[in-house]
Amino acid sequence: MTEARPAGSVSALRERVYATLVGLSTVLLLLNYAGSTTAGEAVADVAAAMGALGLAGGFADVSAHRITHGTFPRGDDLRHILAATGHVVETALLPVLSVGAAALGWLPLSAALWIAALSLVLTIAALALVATRRTAVRWPVKLLLFVVEVAIALAVVAVKLLAH
Fold it and tell me: What is the per-residue pLDDT across 135-151, written as a single tens digit (0 to 9) for each?
C-alpha cells in the first residue's frame, strides 16, 4: 500500500516534470543552432525558458490560491509554492551548468548541449521509473507503463520541436 502524498508534493513533482520537458525541448532546439549561436546565448535561452516556467508556475499557484481562498498564500501553502518553484530550479541546474561550462570555454557547445539533453532524458526516465515502481500492478504492467510514460514524454518534446 502506498502512503498519500500532500497536495504540495504533487504540485512540486508536476513542476519538475514540466521543467524537464521544457528544458529538454529547449536544449534539443538549441542543438539545431549550435553552429550559429554562442554558448552565452544558449545559457541565456535555457535559463530564460526554465526561469519563465518557474515564474509561470508560481504565478498560477498564487492566482489559483487567491481565486479559491480569497487570500494570498501564507504558511504551508506558500512553502509548497516555493518548493514547486525550487523543483524547476533544481531541474535547470545541470543543463545550465553544462552549457555554462561551454560559455567558459571548458566544453564545445554541442557537447554541453548533449550533456544537458542526456541529463534531462535521464530525469524523465527516473521520474517514470519512480512513478511506475510505486504503482500497485504486476511487473509486466509496470514495464509497459514505464515504456508508455517515457514515450509520451518524448512525444511531447517532439511535438514542441515540430512547432518550432
Answer: 888 999 999 999 998 99
Joined grid coordinates for residue 116: 544537458
CB 84, CB 57: distance < 8 Å: yes
How many CB atoms within 10 Å of residue 120?
26
Strand extents, DSSP E, the chain: none
pTM of the model: 0.83
- 153: CB partners within 8 A, 6+ apart: 17, 20, 21, 124, 128
What mean pLDDT, rounded, does the chain reach? 88
